[in-house]
Amino acid sequence: MLLTILTGHVAKENRELLKERFARELHNPPQDLLQTFLIQSEDDPHCWQIISLWRNLEAYEKEHSGKIMEACVQMFCDAGSTPDRTIFHVTEHYTRV
Prior knowledge:
The chain is of the alpha+beta class. Helix content is about 30%, strand content about 30%. The chain starts with a strand and ends in an 8-residue tail after the last strand.
């Protein structure tokens, strides 16, 4: 699996825009996008992240230049922030079922 994190700083007046865009863009997610979260920092309320878990590197690369990846970057830009992207390979994980 592959985990990607987009991090941006969003002003208070743009938070609802970011949340609305996130919800709207994920009505039809890519098949290999396993989970995604929009999170806000407790310590720094201006710091937001979109954390996405992908089936594998190939799935991520297929979608990287596609609609959903560009939409995630664009929603931060529309909310007044240029996000940074970090990519992690998942080496171990646990899921409670």
